[in-house]
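Troubleshooting log. The previous structure file for this entry was overwritten by mistake, so regenerating from the original sequence record. Sequence copied from the archived sheet and checked twice against the printout by T.R.
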Amino acid sequence: MSIRVVALFYLIISLLPFFCSNAYAADQGMITVHYPPDRTVREFGVLSVSLSVPEGSADLLKVIVNDVLRVEIKPERTFACFTVPIKLGVNTINISALKGVKQVDSAAFSVFRKSDLEGKFISPLPIYRKDNFHIKDNGKCAQCHKLEPVESDLKPFNGASIKGADKDREKALSATSTCYSCHKKITSYKYVHGPAAVWSCLSCHDKIAEPKYAVKKPDTEVCFACHTDKKKEWSAMKYTHGPVTIGKCAICHSPHASDYAFNLVKPTWDLCTTCHFEKGTGTHVLGDSIFAEGHPTRNRPDPMRKGQELTCASCHSPHTSNFPHLWAFDVNSLYEFCQKCHNK
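Regenerated output below.
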């Protein structure tokens, strides 16, 4: 065996810890990002980050996401854990360490946020890969966090348990949920899904699944366990909306929380026209009527729902219907349908 081959063998051995570790540093600098790995795929709008710097090496850490300053941390200990918002597609996260006013180190990584709704974000770029945190040995995180569920995490979802003062609820949840300390930002929106509101995570996430804590697919396998009335109602209908047909509730609804009613991932009109982009002009051509100029679909009051704006859901059911075009009313003709609002 030649000296060159032996040297190459020892070089590969010496580099293995670097390639096998999740942690990475900027040019072997002081900032070490423990999670997430660079170029990984995410599914939701918040990203949990864990990093470390040597004690006393920095007075301030600045975290910039897509050129926007999101977090400033004065490190009081070696490790820092925080959450930042991310957009669909590629997100670049830059971290700077400052000592006084001088930047002493920096690190950067990127993640890709995918979407089953937005066509151009369904498939991540080839250089990005899925990473499942809980299937790995993340020993450094375990020094501060419980990574396995305890008995209190098995609590069933109970709607009455959502009620109570925010501060009291937060204190109780942090004490009874091992998930809360790392994932609490995922519910920091106006509308929170019931199980997520009380941190009954194992109502949907399977602790013995592969990969660990995965949710059963299709989504309806999980959703109908609570929404039994909808399962019975919808199964009796003649016409079904595409996402319901394939059992993908999470295409339109966030399973955790959202800024929009019904936990929609977007406002109703924007959500519908993401797929039905041909209706994005704001007017809906009534193809089977004599009125070819179209009908408004937004920016008007809804005659049937006082105080609400006209949207696609004013006329169409988003789930199922017994009538063509998923009409939302029990009618026998287009004329009857129009008369629901135009009755004068």
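The two ends are 95 Å apart (CA to CA). Archived copy saved in two places this time.
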